[in-house]
Design a protein that fits this description.
By secondary structure, this protein is α+β, with helices and mostly antiparallel strands. It has one domain (2-447): Outer membrane efflux proteins (OEP), CATH 1.20.1600. It is built from eleven helices and seven strands. It has helices at residues 2-6, 12-22, 33-43, 45-65, 104-171, 177-212, 245-265, 288-291, 313-381, 393-427, 431-436, and strands at 28-31, 71-75, 91-103, 219-221, 272-282, 298-307, 444-447. The two termini are 25 Å apart.
Length: 449
């Protein structure tokens, strides 16, 4: 109950669902794909940090623009009445104001801050896509894990029956100890694979629970809520780097550094105009009126100051450093663009290969299923095999194990293909559209096995 009380408001309904599912005995909590991705993005510390960077960049733009708005300060320096000739400032309080009126460099600095804000927004978008990709792959992996565990459970049952059949045949003198050892070895390999699959399932479930910020126990993903992945029918002939937020952010940062360098280079030999104003209220108890015939309590001054920098070696060196930094970030952005194009082309070819591998695995499993169906028909009819040898229950269990092995190969091939496809969708900026295409009829529902 403490978890529900301290959970954020948008998570409380989900937390109640999980607690209710946990109290229902053997029930497990199922969460839809779109909800899992949405919660992972909202809960991610990386996304929150990137959002904080955006807020900081917005404040930086506002700070530079507000330099044109007058600042107002007030102060006071009161003391005891003076003795003899007055010393110091006779003011009771002072109000002063100052602002920038014109500067060539300030406009460049504002453009630099705006480019930095664009970069921060693009980095935020890339971070959100990175977290969404992680959550999507984890959901698909967890769905694959559940199917794999079911298949390995079936395979383990077939293997146990195979050992029993071989033992009966061995006792009857119809089989050899070598076949018994082979059957036991197969059973041990299946149990080992099942144990590894369970560990991987728990790891994926724990990772998903960490991503969405909800309890791990009983967490699952409804496989029907995972949308089909449809890649663009025809790839663009000339892909642009702007479709990738990370590369676009690198260019925005380079543009920000370039604007800063341009502003630094326009500091010398260009006028800067500032406005200043001040009001002071003088005190009479400092005895100034005894020594000055025209003593005035209210005093004010206002005006503009024009500054023309003529010689500043430090600022000239700073301009050179800014130019070198801008060139550095520009080259980094070009390198990121080239790497993006290279990875994009490599990933596209990898998807084609993985698609063919998945198709081969599917046909291989279909062939094994058809062989099993033929074998079952022959066993039921009492017919012999192709070579005339009669079919036996041992052959049935062996075929069933082979079919399950083919099914496991299909699961792995499909998962590898989906990994590459989701990565490609992120590369071309289509990941958000694919995630939004997922239907989310229910957030969480309790399902009894």
């Amino acid at each position: 109950m403490r978890f529900i009380q301290h959970a954020p408001s948008f998570l409380r309904p989900l937390a109640v669902g999980f607690v209710a599912a946990g109290l229902s005995g053997s029930a497990s909590a199922q969460i839809s794909f779109s909800t899992a991705v949405d919660l992972s993005v909202k809960n991610s510390p990386k996304v929150k940090a990137a959002q904080a960077d955006v807020d900081k960049a917005k404040a930086a733009v506002q700070e530079l623009r507000d330099a044109y708005i007058p600042t107002v300060t007030g102060g006071s320096g009161l003391g005891p009445p003076s003795y003899g000739f007055p010393l110091g400032n006779p003011s009771i309080f002072t109000i002063s104001s100052q602002s920038l009126v014109f500067s060539y460099s300030q406009r460049d600095y504002i453009r630099s801050a705006r480019a930095a804000l664009d970069a921060a927004n693009l980095t935020l978008a890339d971070t959100r896509q990175s977290v969404a990709e992680d959550a999507a792959l984890t959901c698909i992996a967890l769905d694959r894990d559940v199917q794999r565990q079911t298949a390995l459970g079936d395979e383990a049952g077939f293997s146990s029956r195979l050992i029993a059949i071989v033992q009966e045949r061995l006792d009857a003198g119809q089989d050899t100890a070598l076949n018994m050892t082979a059957a036991k070895l197969t059973n041990a390999q299946i149990r080992l694979a099942k144990l590894r699959a369970e560990d991987e399932t728990e790891a994926d479930r724990a990772h998903l629970a960490q991503l969405i910020g909800l309890p791990e126990r009983g967490l699952g993903v409804t496989g029907e809520s995972i949308p089909e992945i449809n890649l663009p029918a025809a790839d663009r002939q000339e892909p642009s780097h702007t479709e990738n937020p990370a590369v676009a952010s690198a260019y925005a940062i380079a543009q920000s550094k370039l604007e800063t360098a341009f502003g630094d280079s326009r500091y010398l030999f260009r006028p800067q105009i500032t406005f200043g104003g001040q009001y002071e209220r003088f005190a009479e108890f400092y005895n100034y009126q005894l020594y000055y015939s025209h003593f005035q309590q209210n005093n004010a001054v206002a005006g503009v100051q024009i500054t023309l920098p003529l010689f500043d070696m430090a600022h000239r060196a700073k301009a050179r450093a800014s130019a070198a930094e801008a060139a550095h970030f520009q080259h980094q952005a070009d390198a990121a663009r080239d790497q993006y194009f290279s990875n994009r082309a490599r990933l596209k070819h990898s998807i084609d290969e993985l698609s063919l591998r998945a198709e081969v695995a599917g046909l291989d499993r279909q062939f094994a299923q058809q062989q099993l169906e033929v074998l079952l028909v022959q066993l039921k009819a009492g017919n012999g095999g192709a070579a005339g040898a009669p079919m036996s229950p041992k052959d049935e269990q062996t075929s069933r194990i082979a079919e399950r092995e083919k099914f496991l190969a299909v699961l792995d091939a499909n998962y590898q293909m989906k990994q590459a496809q989701i990565n490609f969708l992120r590369q071309i900026g289509e990941l958000d559209s694919w995630v939004r295409s997922a239907a989310a009829p229910e957030t969480i529902r309790a399902v009894k096995p």
